[in-house]
Design a protein that fits this description.
203 residues; 15-stranded mixed beta sheet; 1 helix; globular
């Protein structure tokens, strides 16, 4: 079970929090659990729990920011559940992806992509946990060794762009873990466990 800690960064590269995580193959596919402490956009603690099926499609997502809670489960072509005790439903066909502020959803998305493409995304907003439809682009750059505070990794580099606002950044994914994501997340501690990608041995 891969486990570790990300340093959460702002656009200027300043640390604004941490995300402790663990992820592993689960009963239906794969599961990620994260505990976030951050000052952005306000001081809060957040829990994220995401499960996907064998095809890396969202099966369930749970998020709790202290002030708001969200639970969504996949039922056919919908994600349905509860936000703050109110019933909520979103159309979620097989081509739709999910994005919430954690590297986990980027790792999930790239498992489903064969190369550069634009995708429709159900984006869960930070803090409020309301959601909206957005467009994103993932550009496949290719295999690359990337250095991180947790060690170097043999990874695949992608360029992510939020098409609605024009924000863009590179990210590197090794196996099922985002190991580098400048301007958002920095992998500062990592344990591969039995199933995770391993840092490269020093030369």
């Amino acid at each position: 079970m891969p486990a570790g800690r990300y340093r959460v960064l702002d656009d200027d590269g300043r640390a604004v929090g941490t995300e402790d995580f663990r992820c592993a193959p689960g009963p239906i596919g794969w599961r990620y659990f994260g505990e976030i402490d951050t000052t952005d956009p306000a001081q809060h603690h957040e829990t994220i729990d995401i499960a996907v099926d064998a095809g890396w499609r969202i099966a369930r997502v749970r998020a709790d920011t202290g002030s708001h809670q969200l639970l969504l489960e996949r039922r056919g072509d919908e994600l349905t559940g509860v936000r703050d005790d109110a019933q909520v439903t979103a159309w979620f066909g097989n081509d739709l992806h999910l994005d919430i502020f954690t590297p986990a959803t980027n790792a999930i998305t790239v498992q489903r992509l064969a190369g550069t493409t634009e995708i429709d995304v159900l984006y869960v907003l930070p803090m409020t946990l309301e959601f909206e439809r957005v467009r994103q682009r993932y550009e496949l750059v290719g295999p690359e060794i990337v250095d991180t505070p947790a060690g170097p990794f043999d990874a695949v580099r992608w360029t992510f762009t939020a098409l609605d606002i024009g924000w863009s950044a590179d990210l590197w994914v090794a196996g099922d873990v985002v190991v580098a994501y400048p301007r958002l997340f920095e992998l500062e501690r990592y344990e591969a466990g039995a199933s995770g990608p391993r840092p490269l041995a020093p030369p």
